[in-house]
Amino acid sequence: MPEFLLLALAAGLGVALIAGPLGCFAVWRRMAYFGDTMAHSALLGVTFGLILEVNLNAAVAVGCLLLALALVALQRSRQLATDTLLGILSHSTLALGLVAISVISPGRINLMGYLFGDILATTGADVITIWLVAAFVMAALIWLWKPLLAITVHEDLARVEGVHVSAVRTALMLLMALVIAIAMKVVGVLLITALLIIPAAAARRLSHTPEQMAVTASAIGASSVIGGLAASFIWDWPAGPAIVLAAAAGFVLSLALSTLRR
Fold this sequence. Notes:
By secondary structure, this protein is mostly helical. It contains eleven helices and no strands. Helix 1 runs antiparallel to helix 8 and helix 2 (32-52) runs antiparallel to helix 9. One of its GO terms (biological process) is zinc ion transport.
């Protein structure tokens, strides 16, 4: 197997491992639109990285974290409905990022790679970064698992039980921002949310407990990475979209299995 394919596989599995349980919370809390907004803002991080001449992955991560904090502050002001606010920020940041990149550095970067992923260009440093971030996010999720489940089931009841709802919700948004920042390399800005949501949605129909759903979502995500890379290698498909199509096939299979069970 070519070395570039092994690096791509390692990077994809690292993202799938953490996208599974995090995607479960995105499905439970109906945060898919939040993921889209974070993903679209990643292009602004690329722009700032080019302007400041710093590592682009670090710039994207910082940009996503700052936008997540800004969203938390704007949600507290309650001047606009959350879905309206997310819709405005999502498309505005994507458009601003595209315009800024075309003006500041025309031809300097592979824009299609950022939009649809460039996993086959993954380096050893990228793999190390992805797995370090994945390990940190997984440790944080394990630590926050019970409070996150509590606020997902019923925020008011969780508050009565002593859970710091705002802090836990903010932590979830920041963790999602980190995962989106590292997933951009794998499936691109326009497809990140699919890798978060589709495996979790498929796992929901095959699971009986939250923990089982999280593990199943990670397994489906890992299978999607393997299947997408295989399709890309054999049929010369673009790797990022192929991974998402493999995840979609897994979702269709889960629908069929759940129907057979009933």
